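Entry for zinc ion complex. Fields follow.
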Amino acid sequence: MALRNLVLEGDPLLRKKSRPVDEISPRIIKLLDDMADTMYYENRGIGIAAPQVGVLRRVFIVDVGDDHGKIEFINPEILETSGSQVGGEGCLSVPGKTCEVDRPSHVKVKALDREGNEFVLEADDLLARCICHEYDHLEGILFIDRSVDGKVYRVEDEEDEEE
Ligand code: ZN
């Protein structure tokens, strides 16, 4: 197992656009393995994108705990979106913060797997939300940019409100 350091909000790397992977080299395979280790090591990590570990390549991983398990995306393209869902999000690169984000409730995405095979996935609900969040990282966009009411909350504040 190999963990990578997370790039945190404020680092200009998170604001850059990532480049496509031109060859699925052993380096990319290692990147995918390390990203998964890092995501699972961090509590509540359900997705991670390569820029979050300082690599500006179009790669991300999601695992929302459903039957799909871990899904790796290389050079993803969002083909279609539909519907809308507003819900709270967080991010390993933006610790302790949350806000409400409006995302499509359905997405159709095309990508390569680690063997270089193209696949098309249709996703709903949390998986759709997670894919859109991770895809945004490849474009240098953070979830806090998309707050529906323009507000960003401390996670602790939210817990206080619930009590
Ligand atoms: Zn994120």
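NOTE: The mean pLDDT is 94.
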